[in-house]
Amino acid sequence: GLYTLELLQNSINITWFAYGNDEGAVYPKYFKPIPVKVVTLMLTGIECCIDEWFQGLKEDIKFTLATYASVY
Questions:
Q1: Are 8 and 39 in contact (CB under 8 A)?
Q2: Confidence grade of residue 1 (pLDDT, cut at 50, 70, 90)
Q3: How far apart are CA 41 and CA 39, in angstroms?
Q4: CA angle 22, 26, 31 (to 5 degrees)
Q5: How far is 14 from 12, CA to CA, in rounded Å?
Q6: Using one digit for the tens of pLDDT, what is the confidence trace for 2-54?
Q7: What angle do CA 35, 10, 28 make, to 5 degrees?
Q8: pTM for the full model?
Q9: Is 19 exposed, middle or buried (0-12, 13-18, 19+ CB in 10 A)?
Q10: Are 69 and 48 in contact (CB under 8 A)?
Q11: What pLDDT score does 61 carry?
Q12: Coarse DSSP helix, strand, coil percentages of the chain, rounded to the nearest 5 percent
């Protein structure tokens, strides 16, 4: 499907389902199906990671509303 990117799925799993007390495990009804806002947030985070390596060397970029609102 459209969102079958392994990096995206792994990011969602690590962020919301890694441990039994994570939000996805505790509140599964909010993650079936995965909300579009969650997918968008994860893709925006991936964009931030790409931006950090844009020049070929890692540069710390804060993941802030001011910086990434237009991407989200």
A1: yes
A2: low
A3: 5
A4: 90
A5: 6
A6: 657 888 889 999 999 999 999 999 999 999 999 999 999 999 999 999 999 99
A7: 40
A8: 0.76
A9: exposed
A10: no
A11: 93
A12: 55, 0, 45
